[in-house]
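Form P-L/3: holo structure prediction, ligand nicotinamide-adenine-dinucleotide.
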Amino acid sequence: MTVADEVVTLDREGEIAIVTLDNPPVNATSAALRAGLVSAIERACADAAVRAIVLICAGRTFVAGADVSELGKPRAEPDLRAVLEAIESAPKPVVAAVHGTALGGGLELAMACHHRIATPSAAFGLPEVSLGLIPGAGGTQRLPRLAGVATALSLIVEGKRLVGEAARAAGVVDARASGEESLRADAIAFARDLLARGLPPERLLRRVRDETGRLAPDPAAFDAARAHAAKRLRGQVAPECAIACVAAALDRPFAEGLALERATFQELEAGPQSKALRHAFLAEREAAKIPGIGRETPTRTVERVGIVGAGTMGTGIAMAFLDAGFPVTIVEAKEEALARGRNTIETTYAGSAAKGRIGQGEADARLGRLATSLAYEDLAQADLVIEAAFETMEVKRAVFAALDRVAKPGALLATNTSYLDVDAIAAATSRPQDLLGLHFFSPANIMKLLEVVRAQRTAPDAIATAMALAKRLRKVAVCVGVAHGFVGNRMLARRQAEATHLVLEGAMPWDVDRVLVAFGLPMGPFQMSDLAGLDLGWSRETSKGETLKERLCERDRRGQKTRAGFYDYDDARRGTPSPVTEEIVHAMSAEKGIARRAISDDEILERCLYPMVAEGARILEEGKAIRGSDIDVVWINGYGFPAWRGGPMFWADETGLPTIVAALDRYAATHGDAYAVPDLLRRLAEEGGRLSER
Ligand code: NAD
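OUTPUT (holo model):
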């Protein structure tokens, strides 16, 4: 017997029916899959020769979730809950055979089966909260019943995954397949064994919905979940909703818990946060696509990496590559700097090993891949060289002239410059087609964003190679054009400038920071300045005392490192508002003849964010970003813009472009050109268009 429809196949081996789902790439629970699955289960149940059913997936994984692009839209019948209800109520035992990752609806499906067998490497998770949702097909009710409240909360709220043996220990999996390749045979044998054991009906048809044995109160687990949500998911509504649903599993009957979960899911799906998080998710995928560069574009081989400069960025970038398995050679101009850089890397790995984040063997292996040198000739074998030397055009051009002499033909040459003109840097070499910007963010071994800067003459295969390389580094790459500060820092500069104006007009730095932190950013502009250091590019000899930063530096308030900047800091680096800063601010306002006034939180927010939105529109107008959603990806991954607001372009669209244009026009009347509205923004506001969809 073989009956096949588009995505679901039904076979039989003796008394065992095998339902195979085949919906590449990840067997998402599409309408066709749901319908096919119900019908296959019904047919197997109706077949008198069948006594048990194995549910297995083709391809690289068990069902790994829903199709994100289907969310937020009406879904065709049957919905997943009805499918799971049919499976759980089936009169014949259904065994889920899991490989790869059973995520979201995949784990929910496995839990609605009566038994679960998995490969040794199979992973289980319920990542819906990362999309502003909760599990919507019984996950919040069945997982506490199957594995207890603590495990359920750690998967649902914290996004943890259970892998291999941990899944069995937690009770999610009943049996392990003997290997990665033998799942189908092992699952059939498992089903036959079930039938042979003469189990009582409630064990043969183990229905998780009817179980209460593991439903014990666990206040500590709820506390831990709330603490995680407060720290890591600040501002988001889904985590608390998920917690409420798991709590309902403890004190309400299954059907009621399920109804609460359903209502909550629908509310979240229709709400603004999930919409924004889904946008952020899809935007990240979209960012990988570059017009004119496709699968057919060749990529260059990158195995050996060279880095110039062993400062903050050079060492961070080196670790990003060492972590990903690349051999790295760092070349420095100065012996002490080289020793310091090597020391930073050694200390970081020793720290990671001591904290148990990586094994000692892994730490040793990473360090073993590192070579350091004072000679550019040692970069001759590198397939890619990244320059992270001082931020001046003379230094950059000298470095690239030297690289031009030693690098092998076809090697990629990249600059990590923050602001400088990459075309001018490329002109210092005889091979501008091989040159591009790779703008990492500090700390480069941690921050996920990578701006891939495409200069005028950068070859398409160089860009394709950089985008592919970013994946190997587990970074999120966004391709941008040459502009002062590229996309991220260019918009940031606008915000920093407006924040300073607000302070001179009447706000205090801590007012501005408070408003932006409440908005959802990890820190405000002045906290950020203190962290970075106020003396970047400052020296006592050349200081003109014209800016707040210069005046603070002159008083030796150079940021967190001197325990004083805009804020005063204690030894734990906790900042408090500083009377000295207040005095400096007041003096400067007076000198500039500004009559200080009370400034509302709304004004602070508008004046910090709307000019950034305008700058984003200008970047799009100039073609320096490929699409508006790329700007969102930059800001979410590089600057901590809350993903649940979708990024600055999406947030602007949701706020209403006409509202933003009207406010900018109002501010322009009193504050001038800094608030000028770019044509694109005005036109989109008039036409009802959206920045994030450009
Ligand atoms: P840094 O001062 O910490 O390090 C620069 C290092 O380069 C120094 O150790 C110096 O000795 C070395 N160097 C200078 N000239 C050299 C040469 N000709 N050959 C070899 N080595 C040389 O600076 P950083 O913060 O690491 O910044 C490096 C680059 O990265 C700059 O272009 C900067 O704008 C950019 N960047 C910095 C950050 C950041 O947050 N610090 C972020 C992104 C990009």
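COMMENT: The CA atoms of residues 315 and 343 lie 10 Å apart.
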